[in-house]
Amino acid sequence: MKTILFYGTTTGNTGDIAEKVKSVWSEGDIDLYDVVDTPLSLVDGYDTIIFALPTWDYGEVQEDWQDVWDEVDVIDFSGKQVAFIGLGDQFGYPEWFVDAMGMLHDKVIAQGATIIGHWPIEGYEFDESKALTEDGKHFVGLALDEDWQRDETDGRISTWYKQLIFELGS
Ligand SMILES: Cc1cc2nc3c(=O)[nH]c(=O)nc-3n(C[C@H](O)[C@H](O)[C@H](O)COP(=O)(O)O)c2cc1C
Questions:
Q1: Which atom of ligand 1 approaches the CA of 7 most closely?
Q2: How far is ligand 1, taken at its centre, from the CA of residue 169, in Å?
Q3: pLDDT in tens, 95-141
Q4: pTM metric for this prediction
Q5: Is residue 52 within 8 Å of residue 3, measured between CB atoms?
Q6: For residue range 15-32, what is the model confidence (pLDDT) as tens digits?
Q7: Distance from the alpha carbon of residue 54 to the mean position of ligand 1, in angstroms
Q8: CATH class of domain segment(s) 2-168
Q9: How far, rounded to the nearest angstrom, does the alpha carbon of residue 25 sit from its chain's CA centroid?
């Protein structure tokens, strides 16, 4: 299995998370790229894709992702399994928690992707998020809070990784 992970980061947290995901990834290879210097069209050569992005400025997409935002709409995701990692601050920005992950999810699903890696909302405190599934019980991908719950991150990545591998195999 060949997997690609694209991330964008302003203060480094999402880049660190990408490295952590790579370090637990034991099922085939995973290639990491920063959206700031690599064209998103590279996903064409992969069946399994992970997009990692933080939310900034009251519900906005991180700036490097903003620069490639329109490129997402011309990628054909049919036949591809896509997972998301969203970083945010649930206590500082409780009305916009990991919104950008939901915004990217909605674009990617419109382009035919199969989404894997939904994640339960238990263990987080927030008021609103654009990154929830229709039943409101899950995030559309792995939500991580490096501002308040950094000590939970390794465990969350490890559990989510096992879930992804299970979903990819079933
Ligand atoms: C000015 C500012 C605005 C932010 N806005 C949001 C927000 O609207 N929603 C959210 O969930 N997190 C928000 N955050 C938290 C960041 O997403 C979080 O710190 C993240 O880990 C940053 O990732 P990066 O280091 O990869 O850029 C904000 C942080 C700052 C400093």
A1: 26
A2: 33
A3: 999 999 999 999 999 999 999 999 999 999 999 999 999 999 999 99
A4: 0.98
A5: no
A6: 999 999 999 999 889 999
A7: 6
A8: alpha beta
A9: 15
